[in-house]
Design a protein that fits this description.
With 314 residues, the chain is mainly alpha-helical. The protein has one domain: Rhodopsin 7-helix transmembrane proteins (Rhopdopsin 7-helix transmembrane proteins, Up-down Bundle), CATH 1.20.1070. It is built from ten helices and three strands, in the order E-H-H-E-H-H-H-E-H-H-H-H-H. It binds 2-acetamido-2-deoxy-beta-D-glucopyranose (NAG). 2-acetamido-2-deoxy-beta-D-glucopyranose binds at residues 46, 61, 64-65, 68, 141-142, 145.
């Protein structure tokens, strides 16, 4: 590999969203509002869980980690998109592009692993209710969170290092609003077969294994409910698993829609819309899915803010 001197591209141009210029301002306001909602919603969840001792249970500690991951995930792409929509210079440096790609992959995988940890937590809660507190102790919780962080570093690092060995010669226009890995691979003028193989194998493992683990936990949950069918049992399972299942469906629904239903025509538009879906919409909805349906979260909202007001008046 002759490396550096062939690597003539020092910056990339992000083509952004396929929006006509007269609608640019409307979408700018819309995306800004969505981003601010994402930040505030997830921050509120983290603060509530941190301040309210009733929510210091494994489920809510995982949820606050998930909110943190959502917050970071949409901050990897949204500020740059918003800035590019206003400025006339949508360029990003080579290093900036790889950094964005790294953190994008990092937080996407982190969310994936946290969803598995949450499924395991629900599995223990429903199938072993009497041993729940001993099994899901603080040590196991911290271990699962740390394991998620460590496991997610490996593929993100691997993909980014493999991307860094590629050369980019002439074409530096990315038809996307962030440095998407597949868009970058198409631009490269070196051989990308190794990258594609690694993405296929490692990416397959990262998507399929957690998915199977989640399905397995839910299969066990359903099985244990059906063994002693009772209306109360079913309601309880639904109320504790419903939010998690909704988030899991949203997460995997987008992945499946993106990779398993390829469409030949209009693929850039479809890819961009799907990318908007998982970078903006999913992180924004997660806090609402968890808080609106959830009595504990509403209670915590009351406790934390009323207590504050009380202190304030004293
Ligand atoms: C993530 O989970 C760990 C362990 O359960 C907890 O101690 C920590 O406070 C959580 N972090 C965030 C940001 O919520």
């Amino acid at each position: 590999m002759t490396g550096r001197n062939q690597n003539v591209v020092s910056e990339f141009l992000l083509l952004g969203l396929p929006i006509e210029s007269e609608h640019q301002n409307l979408f700018y306001v819309l995306f800004l509002a969505m981003y601010v909602t994402t930040i505030l919603g997830n921050l509120l969840i983290i603060i509530l869980i941190c301040l309210d001792p009733y929510l210091h249970t494994p489920m809510y500690l995982f949820l606050s980690n998930l909110s943190f991951s959502d917050l970071c995930f949409s901050s990897v792409t949204m500020p740059k998109l918003l800035q590019d929509m206003q400025s006339q210079d949508p360029s990003i440096s080579y290093a900036g592009c790889l950094t964005q790609m790294y953190f994008f992959l990092f937080f996407a995988d982190l969310e994936d692993f946290l969803l598995v940890a949450m499924a395991y937590d629900r599995y223990v809660a429903i199938c072993f209710p009497l041993h729940y507190t001993t099994i899901m102790g603080p040590r196991l919780c911290s271990f699962l969170v740390v394991l998620s962080w460590v496991l997610t570093t490996v593929p993100a690092m691997l993909y980014t290092l493999l991307m860094a060995r590629l050369c980019f010669c002439a074409d530096n226009v990315i038809p996307h609003f962030f440095c998407d890995m597949s868009a970058l691979l198409k631009l490269s003028c070196s051989d990308t077969r190794v990258n594609e193989l690694v993405i296929f194998v490692v990416g397959g493992l990262i998507i399929v294994l957690p998915f199977l683990l989640i399905i397995m936990s839910y299969a066990r949950i359903i099985f244990s409910i059906l063994k002693v069918p009772s209306v109360r049992g079913i309601c309880k399972a639904f109320s504790t698993c419903g939010s998690h299942l909704t988030v899991v469906s949203l997460f995997y629904g987008t992945i499946i829609g993106l990779y398993l239903c390829p469409s030949a025509n209009n693929s850039t538009v479809k890819e961009t819309v799907m990318a908007m879906m998982y970078t903006v919409v999913t992180p924004m909805l997660n806090p609402f899915i968890y808080s609106l349906r959830n009595r504990d979260m509403k209670g915590a909202l009351g406790r934390v803010f009323c207590k504050k007001k009380f202190h304030f008046f004293l």
